[in-house]
Amino acid sequence: MSSLRTIDVSQLRDTVAGLCGQADIFLPADVRAAFNKALAAEESPVGREVISRLLENADIAEAESMPICQDCGLAVVFLDLGQDVHLVGGDLTEAINEGVRRGYEQSYLRKSVCHPFTRANTGDNTPAVIHMRVVPGNQVRLWLVPKGGGSENMSKVFLVTPAQGLPGIKDRVIETVEAAGPNPCPPIILGVAVGGTFEEAGIRAKRALLRELGSVNPDPEAAALESELLTLVNNLGIGPAGLGGRTTCLGVFVDIKPCHIASLPCAVNVQCHAARHKEAVL
Fold it and tell me: Which of 23, 120, 154, 158 could bridge across to 278 with cysteines, CB 3.0–4.6 Å?
């Protein structure tokens, strides 16, 4: 049993501010490793050239402390709040938004949040999108995910009929990637959530993208589906930057959950090749 901890929300604010720059500037280590693996396996000369340029771009971004991409993303925050944590010092949501506000300003990141109709920019990349869940323990674990518009626009939520079953799920994933083509900046990463409900599947699909590339799903059924989908997607031949090749996708992460007997939700969240995310634990 963990003891009660008091954490001032200013710590979360400062942590989020720091993660904004780190996530937008530094290519995650697992993604870099996946690039190098793909470079060795890619048969297309153009595909190998594209992957080489992506690695070069990541090196320049890190050396110059510049964003990996001009689209610095909408700040999505996944927050696991320990039930034995007592937050003090103000409003949690406002603290996170202030962290995003400071982080995007301090790291000179492009602000990409606007009013849905007038398209007037909010000027500070807020509000962030926050997904919080209460978990056992006395720590706060958070992930900052700057999600770009190109990949987000290609993501889908389907309400598949139960009669279509697993083949219907596979078809929806493949048709999502085929329709996306070069738009989400492949090689992509896919988060796929099956089951649950309409709104919850979308969140689970995006949360699935937090997994480390190359990791094995502890659910054998999901692991087998991940392997099959990865092969099917890469057989499409879209390739790096959509210019053809074996490497359309670096990884597929599947989350399977029970659902209503009349339903079969399926969410496909598409992530771009940079797969920007950064984690911290308080």
Answer: 23
